[in-house]
């Protein structure tokens, strides 16, 4: 069932989204050469506890996972793109890191993801991250009343085609609100003018993710981490967005993030952020 939220509901989700944006920005700054993935996990745990929030990931047990997820942030490195299981690993110069988090505050959820390059960035990695960010902004731009869900998916797919990246349709965006995953599903490729008609009050987690070389994926032995089947690099950008009477409202913008597509990010140990 698709639930349309009231303006008061959306403001409560915005509270959650602002907090989540702050934490992801902090993780992006902390990600540096020599930092262990578990240090990032523990930072996120501390911030969630201090805020009195709840992780949507802790004890998450979907059909594709291997047992309940017992972490609060997905950390995916290089050819990993989704559901990366935090583990002892010290980040290396040039690593492409994706951080994906979802939290709930006072019963309302938000979900967001950010990819950065640690240390010295390779141009091809920055281009891949840029593609996901441009696709996300293109999808947000068409998330307006009267348009349809297919317009959102088509906007993402058009950017992928422009950059020359394949699109996997097994995992995509989703509705969000009282829980992390609600209807509808939002594939990262679609046909404009098709699908659910967008109305004010609909809240969506829009999340383009691309790999550099294939639309095929494989799972690690941990049962969670999803990687490109050919070992090519991967990147992922995500925001929680509310459809309003006028402009789409991004609920998970990070501090100092511009309204337009952000510059591809490197960690604080690289050339910028």
From TrEMBL:
Domain of life: Bacteria
UniProt: a divalent metal cation 2 binding residues: 111, 174, 207, 238
Gene Ontology cellular component list: cytosol
Domain (Peptidase M24): residue spans on this chain: 12-245
GO molecular function annotation: initiator methionyl aminopeptidase activity; metal ion binding; metalloaminopeptidase activity
Top class in the EC scheme: hydrolase
Known EC number: 3.4.11.18
Cofactor(s) for this UniProt protein: Co(2+); Zn(2+); Mn(2+); Fe(2+)
Sorted UniProt keywords: Aminopeptidase, Hydrolase, Metal-binding, Protease
Sequence positions that bind a divalent metal cation 1: 100, 111, 238
Reactions the enzyme catalyzes: Release of N-terminal amino acids, preferentially methionine, from peptides and arylamides
Record note on cofactor: Binds 2 divalent metal cations per subunit. Has a high-affinity and a low affinity metal-binding site. The true nature of the physiological cofactor is under debate. The enzyme is active with cobalt, zinc, manganese or divalent iron ions. Most likely, methionine aminopeptidases function as mononuclear Fe(2+)-metalloproteases under physiological conditions, and the catalytically relevant metal-binding site has been assigned to the histidine-containing high-affinity site.
PANTHER family: METHIONINE AMINOPEPTIDASE
Described purpose of this protein according to its UniProt entry: Removes the N-terminal methionine from nascent proteins. The N-terminal methionine is often cleaved when the second residue in the primary sequence is small and uncharged (Met-Ala-, Cys, Gly, Pro, Ser, Thr, or Val). Requires deformylation of the N(alpha)-formylated initiator methionine before it can be hydrolyzed.
Oligomeric and partner information: Monomer.
NCBIfam families for this protein: met_pdase_I
Protein name as it appears in the record: Methionine aminopeptidase
Organism: Streptomyces griseoaurantiacus M045
């Amino acid at each position: 069932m698709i639930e349309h939220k009231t303006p008061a509901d959306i403001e409560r989700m915005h509270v959650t989204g602002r907090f989540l944006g702050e934490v992801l920005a902090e993780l992006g700054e902390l990600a540096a050469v020599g930092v262990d993935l578990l240090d990032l996990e523990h930072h996120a745990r501390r911030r969630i506890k201090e805020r009195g929030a709840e992780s949507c990931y802790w004890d998450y047990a979907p059909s594709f996972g291997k047992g309940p997820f017992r972490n609060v942030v997905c950390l995916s490195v290089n050819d990993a793109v989704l559901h990366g299981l935090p583990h002892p690993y010290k980040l290396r110069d040039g690593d492409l890191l994706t951080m994906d988090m979802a939290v709930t505050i006072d019963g309302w959820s938000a979900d967001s993801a950010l990819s950065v390059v640690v240390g010295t960035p390779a141009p091809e990695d920055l281009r891949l991250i840029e593609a996901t960010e441009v696709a996300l902004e293109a999808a947000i731009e068409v998330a307006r009343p009267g348009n349809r869900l297919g317009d959102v998916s088509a906007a993402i797919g058009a950017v992928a085609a422009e950059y020359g990246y394949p699109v996997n349709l097994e995992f995509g965006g989703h509705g969000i609100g009282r829980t992390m995953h609600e209807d509808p599903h939002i594939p990262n490729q679609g046909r404009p003018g098709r699908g659910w008609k967008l109305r004010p009050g609909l809240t969506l987690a829009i999340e383009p993710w691309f790999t550099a070389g294939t639309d095929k994926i494989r799972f690690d032995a941990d049962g969670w981490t999803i990687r490109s089947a050919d070992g090519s690099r991967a990147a992922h950008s995500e925001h929680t967005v509310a459809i309003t009477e006028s402009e789409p409202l991004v609920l998970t913008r990070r501090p100092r993030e511009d309204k337009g597509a952000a510059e591809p990010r490197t960690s604080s140990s690289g050339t910028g952020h």
